[in-house]
TrEMBL record:
Protein name: NAD(P)-dependent oxidoreductase
Domain FAD/NAD(P)-binding: 149-457
UniProt key word Ribonucleoprotein: no
Gene3D superfamilies attached to this UniProt entry: Alpha-helical ferredoxin, FAD/NAD(P)-binding domain
């Protein structure tokens, strides 16, 4: 323990953030990496709690104190192996988990006033080092079982399940409607939070491990669910949630009023070097424009910060509650403010002013907070008589996502859904109402977090493995 418990005389130190002006000019990640021995020093601040609340509040229940101790002792390879034993992408979680709400927000030394251990940054450092040093092992499939699994959706839930199932020896086929795997890691989350090579090296490792990817393959268009069920012994639906919530105000259909995910996808495609006509013609490019983003979640934060990087003339974020009641991470708000974004709290659009079919301004109502709603947050209501006009030639709607109507789109009316349209699964087996069809990630829990998608992928791989083994045994009995 000689290297540990240093939190009293060693202050909390995150890796330095790049200067706000410099980082607003590119799409590189904003944080520098820890330079050795900073990660080791920071890991040594951990007090090695008997009941580690950091792990309790990590959805993956990562062995945090143990890999912090190994890091502090300079045993980085062992730290990597332990960290990797509970997560398929620790370096990605280290970058984009809202640690202030999860592991770090529950670190006991945060409550003693010394500042949490910088868990996420150390986690990122460990696995980035493993990649650099060549410690990340190839995916080795288990002995072939002669059974095949289809995974619909190559986001973190689908990729995680695919990795574990391949490790168990199944033939795994992943179908995704995009031309690149990764789901929102690839086309939603911008490079300044998660650089794309970090995602692609994970995907490449899975491809090299024998997982077959069918990119540009949309279930509902290129095959029905029934056809895929006939092709595989079991199916996993991990399609995420993509139906953008609508906003019902006058001017909503005008030119320049765009959907957040269209905007972010175009920007991410440009980062890959793709030709994107809607970006080239200006429809999905904020350069030189007065931009207003509507919403207060992670997606809205990503949009405002992307607009800054594209060279917008001004960027405002309109949110109907106040700062304390917004769903987005406070760290992201601080980053956005540093980069020049103006937040207009307690404001909601009444209508969009339009000239010659193009948006010119947002008329916003002032809001006030009433009683707490079902979510526990105070519900916003219009404060009568107080409006303001914000000039805008691009308005980005970032109001959240709901599930698409899969039973209808996939011609599978017997696929059970909740009243929110998410897929109904048995809580123990994680199977949907269709035999052998499982589901995981956002399509089950609604819009959530990457770390929860990974957890769901891990859990569903275990239940699918159990079910597939039972199916194989039943087949052997019949044959006998
Ligand atoms: P997804 O990542 O959505 O992947 C689903 C995949 O299924 C997609 O690739 C899609 O193309 C494919 N698909 C859908 N329908 C079909 C079909 N019919 N046929 C074939 N393929 C199909 N979480 C964090 O933890 N930290 C963050 O900083 C963060 N930032 C975010 C920023 C944005 C802009 C958004 C939108 C979300 C963010 N999230 C963040 C949430 C996080 O990205 C999701 O919770 C997570 O990606 C869900 O994983 P998933 O595998 O369930 O689905
Ligand atoms: Fe923290 Fe997320 Fe890593 Fe868990 S996965 S330790 S919550 S950063
Ligand atoms: Fe270490 Fe904090 Fe976790 Fe305790 S809660 S084990 S101090 S990281």
């Amino acid at each position: 323990m000689a290297d540990m418990l240093k939190f009293v005389d060693r202050s909390q130190s995150y890796p330095a953030k790049r200067d706000a002006t410099a980082r607003a000019a590119d799409f590189r990640e904003i944080a520098e990496r820890y330079a050795p021995p900073a990660a080791e020093d920071q890991a040594g601040r951990c007090s090695q709690c008997g009941v580690p609340y950091c792990s309790v509040h990590c959805p993956l229940h990562n062995h945090i104190p143990d890999w912090l101790r190994l890091t502090a002792e300079g045993r980085l390879r062992e730290a990597y192996e332990l960290s990797n034993s509970t997560s398929t992408m620790p370096e990605i979680c280290g970058r984009i988990c809202p640690q202030d709400r999860l592991c770090e927000g529950n670190c006991v030394i945060e409550f003693t006033g010394h500042g949490a251990v910088t868990i996420g940054s150390v986690e990122k450092f460990i696995t980035d080092t493993a990649w650099a040093e060549g410690w990340v092992e190839p995916l080795v499939p288990g002995p072939a079982r002669g059974q095949s699994v289809g995974v619909i959706g190559a986001g973190p839930a689908g990729l995680t399940a695919a990795e574990y199932l391949r490790g168990h020896g199944y033939d795994v086929h992943v179908y995704d409607r995009h031309d690149r795997a990764g789901g929102l890691l690839t086309y939603g989350i911008p490079g300044f939070k998660l650089e794309k090579p970090v995602v692609m090296r994970r995907v490449d490792r899975l491809k090299e491990g024998g997982i077959v990817f069918h990119e540009g393959f949309e279930v509902g268009r290129d095959a029905t669910l029934a056809e895929l069920r006939a092709r595989h012994d079991a199916l996993l639906v991990a399609t995420g949630v993509y139906k953008a919530r609508a906003i019902d105000v006058a001017g909503n259909e005008a030119g320049g009023v765009i959907a957040a995910l269209d905007y972010l996808t175009a920007s991410n495609r440009k980062s890959f070097g793709d030709a994107v006509p809607e970006f080239e013609d200006g429809s999905l490019n904020a350069a030189g424009k007065h931009v207003v983003v509507i919403g207060g979640g992670d997606t809205a934060m990503d949009c405002v910060r992307t607009a800054v990087r594209q060279g917008a003339a001004s960027v405002r974020c309109l949110y109907r509650r106040d700062r304390a009641n917004m769903p987005g991470s406070q760290r992201e708000v601080a980053n956005a403010e540093e980069e020049g974004v103006e937040f207009v709290w307690l404001a909601a659009p009444e209508r969009f002013a339009v000239d010659a079919d193009r948006v010119t301004a947002v008329r916003a109502n002032r809001m006030r907070l009433g009683r707490a709603d079902a979510s526990g947050r105070r519900a916003p209501e219009v404060d009568p008589g107080a409006t303001q006009d914000l000039p805008a030639d691009m308005v980005i709607k970032a109001l959240g996502f709901d599930a698409e109507e899969l039973p209808h789109l996939w011609n599978a009316p017997e696929l059970g859904v909740t009243r929110w349209g998410t897929l109904l699964v048995d809580p123990k087996s994680l199977m949907t109402s269709l035999d052998g069809v499982f589901a995981a990630g956002d399509i089950v829990r609604g819009a959530s977090l990457v770390v929860w998608a990974i957890r769901d992928g891990r859990d569903v791989a275990a239940t699918m493995h159990k079910w597939l083994k039972a199916k194989a045994r039943a087949g052997e009995k019949v044959a006998a």
